[in-house]
Amino acid sequence: MSERPDSEPAAEPARHRPIRSFVLRQGRLTPAQQRAFDEHWARFGREPAGQPVDWDAVFDRKARRVLEIGFGNGEALRWAAGRHPDWDFVGIEVHRPGVGRLLNGLAEDGRDNARLYCHDAVEVLRHDFSEGSLDEVRIWFPDPWHKKRHNKRRLVQPEFVALLATRIRPGGRLHLATDWEAYAEHMHEVMDANPDFRNEAGPGQASPRPDTRPQTHFETRGQRLGHGVWDLLYQRT
């Protein structure tokens, strides 16, 4: 029998857990989505490198580079890759079924100008992209976290915007879009306080939807119900 210690061992210090802007709802992959990972991930997928990636080497060319954060089911990114074959696109999404769906779509279209991460966007942006390596970042319809106690989970926060400012080249663009008015107001407040960005429509103003963002089926249905949509376009100064 072991001897009883004179005192209890010291408790391990609590680990700091960063606030996440998402809840990981993986869902169940359909057989087609699982095949997409099996057959197409090697072509389109990217594992976090943990260091700046040479994107010109990845795409075997030098082109306009656009990052979409939280692409959902990939509808907009697939559309953009087809509409702008002379641009290169990188997408980040944590929801595996959505990634699988886009993998299938890109393969079906025969596109080679898109690469996908299934990982946390903040970590990828911080480590895999060098300063000034992006021409545009798109964050369309992120989770609004509409309950006040959850507002701190919103992706568009001062610290994240400061990180974006280091990764978008001067003269580049940050395009935010939301269908939640309170989140649009929050975005304006955060963005207008950052001196590295200039609102293309003027402080506190939204812009008309540019032709680089397609109108989704969800958005069309919402507009029929009287829901608003706000596009916020900011130039990196």
From TrEMBL:
UniProt-listed SUPFAM superfamilies? S-adenosyl-L-methionine-dependent methyltransferases (SSF53335)
Compositional bias segments (type: Basic and acidic residues): 210-221
Which pathway, per its entry? tRNA modification; N(7)-methylguanine-tRNA biosynthesis
| Renumbered residue ranges of the record's region Disordered | 194-221
Positions of region (Interaction with RNA): 149-154
- Would I find Methyltransferase among this entry's keywords? yes
Question: Which reactions is this enzyme annotated as catalysing?
Answer: guanosine(46) in tRNA + S-adenosyl-L-methionine = N(7)-methylguanosine(46) in tRNA + S-adenosyl-L-homocysteine
The record's InterPro entries line, in alphabetical order, gives: SAM-dependent_MTases_sf (IPR029063), tRNA_(Gua-N-7)_MeTrfase_Trmb (IPR003358), tRNA_methyltr_TrmB_bact (IPR055361)
Keywords, A to Z?
Methyltransferase, S-adenosyl-L-methionine, Transferase, tRNA processing
In terms of superkingdom, the source organism counts as Bacteria
Binding residue positions for S-adenosyl-L-methionine: 68, 93, 120, 143
The protein's enzyme class? transferase
GO: which molecular function terms? tRNA (guanine(46)-N7)-methyltransferase activity
What's its EC? 2.1.1.33
Detail which positions bind substrate.
147, 179, 216-219
Record-stated family:
Belongs to the class I-like SAM-binding methyltransferase superfamily. TrmB family.
Function field = Catalyzes the formation of N(7)-methylguanine at position 46 (m7G46) in tRNA.
The name under which this protein is listed is: tRNA (guanine-N(7)-)-methyltransferase
Gene of this entry: trmB
